[in-house]
Amino acid sequence: MRCLVVDDCEELALLWRLELTTRSFDVDVALNAEEAFKAMLHTRYDLIVADLGLPDGSGVTVAQSAAMRAPDADVVVVTARTEFPNGELFGMSDNIVGVFRKSADMSDLYAFVEHLRERRERDDAPAVRAARDRGEAEEAGADIFGPAWSKARRITANAAE
């Protein structure tokens, strides 16, 4: 899984690259938004971990650019801010799937990234991909994941109402 880490703190970006690489991710690092935009011109990323506050932009602008270049890319925004946004970041770009505070213990971020990888692998399973191509993804999900699929779909539908 291709990952781009975008953070202006080089030490932190390199630490994240090391951690994600040990988890079998193929990781590139950009130290600002401009470097991220250039990297996205040449590489299609599955996951982007972007700092909210960059010297020449923000994690949101990186997410918006990624949405145009690679609509399937998931973006996780990280921030050092103590005031935590109340979900408004999710409305700024459709591909922002998570927001985390920077801290000494980033185990929650790494667990979330692993979840995203597992979801992507599951969604790319041949049966689901073929059903999606035929417009039958709901049925394929139920066939593969059983009753839990139907329950999850009901919960999601109820939450959307």
Automatic annotation (TrEMBL):
One of the Pfam families matching this protein, by short name: Response_reg
Keyword Disulfide bond: no
Keywords: DNA-binding, Phosphoprotein, Transcription, Transcription regulation, Two-component regulatory system
Domain Response regulatory as annotated: residue spans: 2-117
Tree of life domain: Bacteria
GO biological process assignments: regulation of DNA-templated transcription
CDD domains in the record: REC (cd00156)
Entries under Gene3D superfamilies matching the protein: 3.40.50.2300
Modified residues (4-aspartylphosphate): D51
Single GO term (MF): phosphorelay response regulator activity
Protein name, as recorded: Response regulator receiver domain-containing protein
Organism: Albimonas donghaensis
